[in-house]
Design goal:
The chain has 374 residues and is an alpha+beta fold. The protein folds into 4 domains: 100 residues, Uridine Diphospho-n-acetylenolpyruvylglucosamine Reductase, domain 3, CATH 3.30.465.10; 94 residues, Alpha-Beta Plaits (2-Layer Sandwich); 97 residues, 2-Layer Sandwich (Alpha-Beta Plaits); 53 residues, no CATH class. The strands form 3 sheets. The chain has a 7-stranded antiparallel beta sheet with strand order 9-6-8-7-11-12-10, with helices on both faces. Strand 11 and strand 12 form a beta hairpin. The chain is globular, with a radius of gyration of 21 Å. Bound molecules: flavin-adenine dinucleotide (FAD). The site of flavin-adenine dinucleotide (FAD) has 23 residues, from helix 2 and strand 4.
């Protein structure tokens, strides 16, 4: 059921020797319905896929009260994929009341490896070649020097690649051998496996960032996808633009999910308020700094050829970028919303959709008047 939390789902399927393979960092605190509604990606996605690879079909309650079922077959060719319309719809088109997911046999073997690279760009080049050679380990994550030190220790001089794979022993051995060859070809040094163990043990722990928030720091993360050829530029552009914001203290990134044609780059940006005291002035300063860093980061990413979001979705905060990111295709989304939910009942203003139900915080992509809704 959509309200099922990650651990409960995995426990239930594990009893049958199966795994869904979807392990977002928010695994403990997020639900199947939220994964589908926000088009999520788990940390093992390079082997098991994004949530859309796992959804077989949906049951959805529409705004007029009717209940529909979508999908159900391994593949189909009867028109556009209606299941896909609801994946990533963020509750704007209907309420997902049942989800059918694919499951995999629990893998008999798990192996791991880690590498240090002199530069983030070298690591990206190695990942690109390994993926293009069809070596797709479940986890392939490259941390820049700042994040490598923050997350795994070390002296802050190297980028770190974490590799972990699950599966049949021959396939896992071959996958790790291909990654190893491309990593060494790009100047990597093999790192201790403990780096992977440390990542596994701490991968869902965000308490460090939460502690910084209490000390007057303004923190958020932004994940975008870009073709391999644009990834290094996107990294540099976002870092430069966000660092230039008055009050910004640090911008770092890791490459978290890989595909044949590109990858997701996940930024963490940190700004510092002038005082730790909570006053009207610091609250206003917090919002100004938060928005300024988001605007700088997101606009730099879009200008560098990255997209708007890879797996966190849009919500309210990113709504103002939707028109810019989607261009004329945004009109199709607006038309679907008007057709399926003409009274604007479901999550008004999310996904930057025009709404007559008041002003959304920080603005939306388009106004209701621009779409003839007034
Ligand atoms: C610390 C942290 C780490 C995260 N890591 C990841 C990650 O690794 N990968 C990832 O993909 N995401 C991640 N996220 C983002 C978030 O957890 C996911 O997007 C998740 O999929 C949202 O699920 P939820 O149950 O929390 O949804 P909610 O936050 O409750 O809802 C999110 C949106 O989906 C809509 N929605 C929820 N359920 C339904 C339903 N049944 N029908 C229709 N609409 C619905 C809600 O209306 C809302 O608009 C992270 C978030 C946090 C805070």
């Amino acid at each position: 059921m959509p309200g099922t939390f990650g651990p409960d789902l995995e426990r239930a399927v594990n009893e049958h020797g199966l795994t869904v393979g979807h392990f977002p960092q928010s695994f403990d605190i997020s639900t199947v319905g939220g994964w589908v509604a926000c088009h999520g990606a788990g940390q093992f996605s390079t082997r098991y896929g994004k949530i859309h690879d796992m959804v077989v079909g949906l049951e959805v309650v529409l705004a007029d009260g009717s209940v529909i079922r979508t999908g159900g077959a391994p593949a189909a060719a009867h028109g556009p994929d209606v299941t896909s319309i609801f994946i990533g719809s963020e509750g704007t088109l209907g309420v997902i009341t049942r989800v059918w997911l694919r499951a995999h046999d629990v893998a008999p073997v798990r192996r791991k490896a880690a590498y240090f690279f002199a530069s983030f760009a070298d690591g990206i080049a190695a990942m690109r070649e390994a993926i293009r050679a069809h070596a797709t380990p479940a986890v392939l994550r490259l941390y820049d020097a700042v994040e490598a030190q923050r997350s795994h220790g070390g002296d802050g001089s190297n980028s770190t690649l974490i590799v972990l794979d699950d599966g049949e022993p021959e396939i896992v051995a071959a996958t790790l051998a291909v990654v190893d060859r491309f990593a060494l070809a790009h100047g990597a040094v093999r790192a201790p496996d403990e780096r992977v163990d440390h990542w596994l043990a701490h991968r869902n722990d965000t308490s460090g960032l939460q502690a910084l928030t209490k000390k007057g720091f303004v923190i958020d993360t932004m994940e975008v996808a870009a073709p391999w050829s644009k990834l290094t530029d996107a990294y540099a552009s976002v870092a430069a633009a966000t660092s230039a914001v008055s009050g910004a203290r640090s911008v770092s990134a890791h490459v978290s999910h890989s595909y044949l044609d590109g990858a997701c780059i996940y930024f963490t940006f940190v700004g510092q308020l002038s005082s730790r005291d909570i006053t009207d002035a610091t609250t206003a300063e917090h919002e100004r700094l938060y928005l300024a860093m988001w605007n700088a980061a997101q606009r730099a990413a879009l200008s560098a050829g990255a997209n708007l979001a890879h797996h966190h979705g849009v919500g309210l905060n990113r709504g103002r970028f939707m028109r810019e990111a989607m261009g004329d295709a945004f009109a199709v989304l607006v038309a679907m919303k008007q057709s399926l939910d003409p009274l604007d009942i479901f999550n008004p203003g999310k996904l930057g959709l025009p709404t007559r139900r008041g002003t959304m915080p920080w603005g939306t992509g388009d106004t209701a008047a621009e779409h003839g809704l007034d």
